[in-house]
Amino acid sequence: MTLPVLAVTSGEPAGIGPDICLDLAFAGLPCRPVVLGDRDLLRARAAALGKAVQIVDFDPDSPHHEAGVLEVRHVPLRVPCEAGRLASENAAYVLELLDTAYQGISDGLFAAMVTAPLHKGIINDGLPDGGFFSGHTEYLADKSSTDQVVMMLAGGGLRVALATTHLPLKDVSAVLTQPLLESVARIVHADLRDKFGIAAPRILVTGLNPHAGEGGHLGREEIDVVIPALETLQAEGLDVRGPYPADTVFQPFLLKEADAVLAMYHDQGLPVLKYASFGRGVNVTLGLPFVRTSVDHGTALDLAATGKADSGSLIVAVETALEMTGSCRAAQAV
C-alpha cells in the first residue's frame, strides 16, 4: 500500500518544534510524515532529549516507514541554534521550510502540509527593511495566489472559524462588512464539504456585540451586516444560522445541530475551543488549494530541549491532515 507523504515543517529552531517533530517517529501514523528542517539540529535535539530516533534523509523512492525512524528533508540553518535563544539570522531558514513544503505540494511530492510553531517577531526582526511577516496563513495565501483564506481551529468536539483574525479589537467593526462575512461563510461551507466530507454543512454564526446587539441597543452590526449576510447565504442554499450571542452559542443543545461555529473575531470563539482542547487542538487554514494544518500552540521557548513539550497537538494535526486529504480525494472522485 502506498502511504500518503506529508510535509511537516519544524518551525522556529530555538523552540519546541524540533522536539515535538521527533515524536512522529514513534506515533504509528498511517502515513509518511517527512520533517523539513536541519538534520544536525534534529539529531542534536534527539540526543539532548535522550530519544532514540534514527534520522534519515527523505528519499521519495525509498520509504522508511518504521518505528523509530524519522525521514527528514534537510534544510540547513543559517546560524547555529541554541534551544530557547532566538536568532534573527535564522528567519530566512524558517521561511525556507515553508517554501520547500509548498514547492513539494506543487510538485505532487507531498499530499498536505503540517506546520510546527514559528515566532513571528523574530522573523520580522530578520527580514530586510520594508518586509513584514504576519503569519503562516497570510504567507501561504500569498505563495499560492489565494485571494482569501479563513482560519479555523478544531478540537474538543468543536470547529470554530473566524471572520477576522489578527486585528486590534478596535478595528474589527470597520473590517467586518457584509461581503467579507458572506465570502468567509462560503469558504467555510465549501471546505467543510470538500475537505471534511460533510455533505450539507451546518454553521452557527455569532453576533459581534454582547447579546448579539440586543435589537440594536448594543450595536447595529448585527442589523446592518450579519443578518443581511445570513439572508443572502440562506437564499443560496447554505445552512447558516444566527446571529447567536457568543456567550450562549457554545451550548451542547445548539452544537449538536452544527458542524462549525463562525465567530466574528479571534478572542470571541477561540478561548472556548482552547479550553476544551488545548494540547489536542488543530489550526486549519481553509480556502487554500491544498490541505494545511498546524498546532494550536506557540514556540514555548522555555520548554525547548527540556523534555516537557507535549507533541499531542502536532500528532492530531497530522491525523487531521490525513482525514482531510482522504475527503479531498473522495470529493474529487464524485
From TrEMBL:
> Which top class of enzyme applies to this chain?
oxidoreductase
GO biological process terms on file: pyridoxal phosphate biosynthetic process; pyridoxine biosynthetic process
Q: Which UniProt keywords apply?
A: Cobalt, Cytoplasm, Magnesium, Metal-binding, NAD, NADP, Oxidoreductase, Pyridoxine biosynthesis, Zinc
Instruction: Share what the entry says about its subunit structure, partners included.
Output: Homodimer.
* Function comment: Catalyzes the NAD(P)-dependent oxidation of 4-(phosphooxy)-L-threonine (HTP) into 2-amino-3-oxo-4-(phosphooxy)butyric acid which spontaneously decarboxylates to form 3-amino-2-oxopropyl phosphate (AHAP).
What does the sequence similarity comment in the record state about its family? Belongs to the PdxA family.
The protein in question is named 4-hydroxythreonine-4-phosphate dehydrogenase
The protein's organism comes out as: Bergeriella denitrificans
